[in-house]
Amino acid sequence: MSYQPSQNSHEGDYMSIMRGLRELNLCGPCTPSDLVLIGDHAFPLAMNSQGQVLMAASLYGSGRIVVLGHEDYLSAFPALVENALIWLRGEGSDNPSVAVHHNVWAVAGNFNSSMFQVEVVGAFSSDLKAGVYLTDAYSVDADSKDLVEFMKAGGGVLIAGQAWDWAAQHPKENTLLNFSGNKVSGVAGVYFSDHHGMVENLPVYPQIPSSWMALVVGKDFEDDLEFLLQGVPEFNLPPGLLASEVLVHGPLAFPIFTTDDGRAFLAGAYYGQGRVIVVTHEGVLNNEAMAPFWTNVLHWLDEGRR
Q1: Pair 45, 35: CB distance under 8 Å
Q2: What percentage of the chain has pLDDT greater than the value 70?
Q3: Which InterPro entries does this entry report, sorted A to Z (predicted)?
Q4: Given its phi and psi angles, is residue 263 left (phi above 0), alpha (psi -120 to 50 degrees) or beta?
Q5: pLDDT at 1 over 50
Q6: 62-104 pLDDT per residue, tens
Q7: In this structure, are residues 166 and 178 in contact, taking their beta carbons and an 8 Å threshold?
Q8: What tens digit of pLDDT does each residue of 11-41 get?
Q9: C-beta neighbour count of 9 within 10 angstroms
Q10: How far apart are CA 116 and CA 28, in angstroms?
């Protein structure tokens, strides 16, 4: 297993968050979620030998977010949390206030009192004067929209939890869209997945960890395809229509229809809290025989807002 420097603009951010750390011993009793990262602003902080991301950070709007794959990591790694809080409040900020959700109030005892002013709160509120909000991933459902606006306006969010237990209890629900933590972190390109993360004693590398093994599908799209293709036995391109090929890449994108030689011309993807369908020729939209498919597409795109 090799780790190569990630070729992006977040090396300085990574170094700030991981400053002074030599290893992260994750071999404890807790099982984290594997985190799925998309977009240019999300980057891993901790990656195991299987390429699974167990801690990550990202930028959103004018704000920042750090995501830990299990809530117990908030107390297990106090130096990491302290570095994260400093990074989250942003360069040049003189706001020492950190709001901590009462479900994780115990972690506040690890903070340096000369650097942070801690306020334990029952829920997030736009009236809070804190520059950073710390919470578990299970307590943000009612406040997710306000938290996203807080982050977009320059606030920092530290959120920790795992989604595999929630997914097991809600087998018919979409974890990427409906797990409460993803309603906040997903807008920044970091998702809690329903996959268990393998725990190891991880060295902290001087550069952002990366691995070819991390290039995996972040979701099983069987349920999406079943929904989209309900009542659609086949998709025939109209005679004479030459569609472009769509390059499907990333862990949350998937082909829907391909040509006989395997080139995709219609694909779907998840992005933030939304969904996207791409078709590479406008003439396909006028195919009346495919009306049931386009009806399915509209319902799929509108998921969660009906």
Answers
A1: no
A2: 94
A3: Class_I_gatase-like, TCAF
A4: beta
A5: no
A6: 999 999 999 999 999 999 999 999 999 988 777 889 999 999 9
A7: no
A8: 999 999 999 999 999 998 999 999 999 988 9
A9: 11
A10: 28
**Co-location of 204 and 132 in the same domain:** yes
Cα-Cα-Cα-Cα dihedral of 131, 137, 143, 145, to 10°?
80
Q: Is residue 60 domain-shared with residue 166, that is, in the same domain? A: yes
Residue 306 belongs to some domain of the structure:
no
Last residue of a domain, one of 188, 214, 240: 214
What's the pLDDT tens digit per position in 191-248? 999 999 999 999 999 999 987 555 555 677 888 898 898 988 877 777 777 778 888 8
Q: Does residue 86 sit in the same domain as residue 108? A: yes
Same domain for 246 and 296: yes
Structure tokens at 238: 């109209």
Cβ-proximal residues to 15 (8 Å cutoff; 6+ apart), any chain:
206
Same domain, 198 and 240: no
Six token digits for residue 67: 């995501």
Tell the residue number behind the tokens 């999406």, with chain if given.
Answer: 224
Average pLDDT (114-137) is 92
Token pair recorded at residue 150: 């807080």
User: Looking at the 3D structure of the chain, how many domains does it have?
Assistant: 2
Residue 179 lies in a domain: yes
- Per the domain annotation, does 297 fall within a domain? yes
Which long-range contacts does 270-276 make (Cβ < 8 Å, 24+ apart)? Answer: 270/38, 270/176, 270/177, 270/219, 271/38, 271/39, 272/186, 272/187, 272/189, 273/177, 273/182, 273/183, 273/186, 273/187, 275/300, 275/301, 275/303, 276/301
